[in-house]
Amino acid sequence: NRQKRIRNFSIIAHIDHGKSTLADRILESTSALTKREMRAQMLDAMDLERERGITIKLNAVQLTYKAQDGEEYIFHLIDTPGHVDFSYEVSRSLAACEGALLIVDAAQGIEAQTLANVYLALENDLEIIPVINKIDLPSAEPERVKQEVEDVIGLDASEAVLTSAKSGLGIEDVLEAIVEKVPAPTGDPDAPLKALIFDSLYDPYRGVVTYIRIIDGTVKVGDHIKMMATGKSFEVNEIGVFTPKPVAKDELTVGDVGYLTAAIKNVSDTRVGDTITSAAHPTAEPLPGYRRMNPMVFCGLYPIDSNDYNDLREALERLELNDSSLQYEAETSEALGFGFRCGFLGLLHMEIIQERIEREFGIDLITTAPSVIYKVEMANGETIEIDNPSKMPEGKMIENVEEPYVKASVMTPNDYVGAVMELCQNKRGEFIDMVYLDENRVNVIYHIPLSEIVYDFFDHLKSNTKGYASLDYELIGYKPSKLVKMDILLNGEKIDALSIIVHRDFAYPRGKAIVEKLKELIPRQQFEVPIQAALGQKIVARSTIKALRKNVLAKCYGGDISRKRKLLEKQKEGKKRMKTVGKVDVPQEAFMAVLRLD
Ligand code: GDP
Ligand code: MG
Q: Chief subcellular site (predicted)?
């Protein structure tokens, strides 16, 4: 019976512990690909993922494995992202599995996101198989890490698999453990269709392609299906599996993981987390949906060339289809013109979306500094939410401002506990707890304003601990804070896109640091440009960019024309990421100045 030989699993790990490398080894030894087709980190398909060495979108592949018991097994491997920003995607893909390989670096041990991922796997009732990876490293301590898995996570690690994904050691053991430990799917092939949509993407020729896991029943080409959340019906055009090449099939049945197209033109007709059923014989209850993740970080995206506005809207529409956590709405800025206010799960998510818009859609962008959502209680009793600092009302109209706080959990070697605590204090953190994982590693817990994490917390954490500390955080709610809006004036003009919200006690030093940073980042112009930071009418810091003295072209005067042209081109190149604000040319970096203060 085929169903008994299906194994659906994910790989979860803290970033860099070797998930993609292990996935590559598994792909190699289950020979889904010829050597020529196999390239390093096969599952990280997007260029951006390959460059940054991180996994953004989850992927599902079908593999076959001839086990030591002589049977041939069908594996569905669902890759998940490892970064904290993408935990909602991890959660989505885990719901399509019965088991998970938990990779832990044999030299690093358990990190903050190892734990976060384990909790997601436990929430989804998955069988967790511990895999201790990188045992080839001289600093590997597999026995210590096994003990840590038992003590900290509470999993039995006596049968943990030891691997070197790099050299290929232990891969067979991993495959056997999957066969032995991951339960086969339990659905009923004769029951009405019940399939989970765990991802979707838009294909210009085929419409929406949904990635599905069949829980009950069978789906065939030509079937009439219904989306349970939206009530919309469609006729199935194509179904298939990824090997990782898409391979068309006649049907998918219980336990299968694959794709389905049905000439679905409208993005909003499919929702990730929705249940697909048969239009004629619908199942009684939909599957429990996914937790909808709300964006926590907001910024403005503006096309440098205002003619690109409609293309930018289209790009955001496309990206939103693949990424339900991306939010956007039109906004206008006096300084930057027409653009969009966009919401993201975190900073990495924000950077990735920006880069994808620039690369995949060819639109040059100006992005404003990220902001969180502030809750403002007005003197007239009304409460409003502010996701754009320039929209913060006048001080005298405000009764009270609240900002989002997170519970930050920092895992660090003992030696850096002092440095971590100092950083957390500087970032307005409140100490909550400190837990020793073993004699050398500590989990330090603080409540910290999300805005501080969004700015530069992670960079500082890494540099203050030589990269040894790891961070995980979750939103815990709002708390009142003494927050004020600080405006930035260039050449006497208030630039709305540069306004920020600061804590009153830190306003002066921050204002001073920002005007100094802007002076560094904004190139000299033909005239002198004063820079000022203001709280209401009161100027709290100032500096001046001196006027440009000589004409750049003067030194080529009478010189050869090609050199002159090159110089002009170079200037144009530099201009690409500039926006003229009032009369001043402001480069992209200046809008992010607040993030780079030291
Ligand atoms: P991911 O972030 O969990 O997907 O991690 P990657 O698979 O991208 O691996 C992160 C880094 O660790 C890469 O430089 C890999 O080459 C390296 N790596 C992965 N597995 C091993 C291993 O078993 N031994 C050693 N020495 N390095 C490994
Ligand atoms: Mg990876």
A: membrane
Residue 496 labelled as part of a binding site: no
Taking the CA of residue 23 as reference, the ligand 1 atom at the shortest distance is 7
Q: Is 164 close to ligand 1, i.e. is its CB under 6 Å away?
A: yes
Q: Whose CA is nearest to atom 22 of ligand 1?
A: 134
Determine whether the shortest distance from the Cβ of 18 to ligand 1 is under 6 A: yes
595-598 long-range contacts (CB < 8 A, ≥24 apart) are 595/369, 595/370, 595/455, 595/456, 596/456, 596/517, 597/456, 597/510, 597/513, 597/514, 597/517
Query: How many A from CA of 51 to the centre of ligand 1?
Result: 14
CA distance 225 to 236: 7
Q: What's CA 492's distance to the chain center, in Å?
A: 38
pTM over 0.80: no
Determine the distance separating the centroid of ligand 2 and the alpha carbon of 107, expressed in angstroms: 18
> How many CA atoms does the CB half-sphere of 14 hold within 13 Å?
22
Pocket flag, ligand 1, residue 16 (CB < 6 Å): yes
Encoded amino acid at 294, one letter: N
pLDDT tens digits for the chain (598 residues)?
899 999 999 999 888 899 888 988 998 888 666 665 665 555 555 555 555 544 445 478 899 999 999 999 999 998 776 565 666 667 777 889 999 999 999 999 998 888 878 888 988 899 999 999 999 999 999 999 999 999 888 899 999 999 999 999 999 999 999 999 999 999 999 999 999 988 777 777 888 888 899 999 999 999 999 999 888 999 999 999 988 778 899 999 999 999 999 988 776 677 777 899 999 999 998 887 655 567 888 999 999 888 999 999 999 988 887 676 788 999 999 889 999 999 988 887 888 899 889 888 999 999 998 899 999 999 999 999 999 999 999 888 999 999 999 999 998 989 999 999 999 999 999 999 999 887 788 999 999 999 988 877 887 888 888 878 888 888 899 999 999 999 999 999 999 999 999 999 989 999 999 999 999 999 888 899 999 999 999 999 999 999 877 655 555 555 556 666 666 665 555 555 778 888 888 988 888 887 777 6
Cα 164 to ligand 1 centre (Å): 9
Mutate to test the pocket of ligand 1, among 131, 166, 470 (most ligand atoms within 8 A of CB): 166
The reply to whether 128 sits in an annotated binding site is no
Whether residue 133 has its Cβ less than 6 Å from ligand 1: yes
Identify the CA nearest to 346 among candidates 113, 149, 72: 113
20 in a known ligand binding site: yes
Buried b (16+ CB within 10 A) or exposed e, 154-182: ebebeebbbbbbbeeebbeebbebbbebb
Give the residue from 503, 454, 453, 447 showing the smallest Cα distance to 476: 447
For atom 28 of ligand 1, the residue with the nearest CA is 166
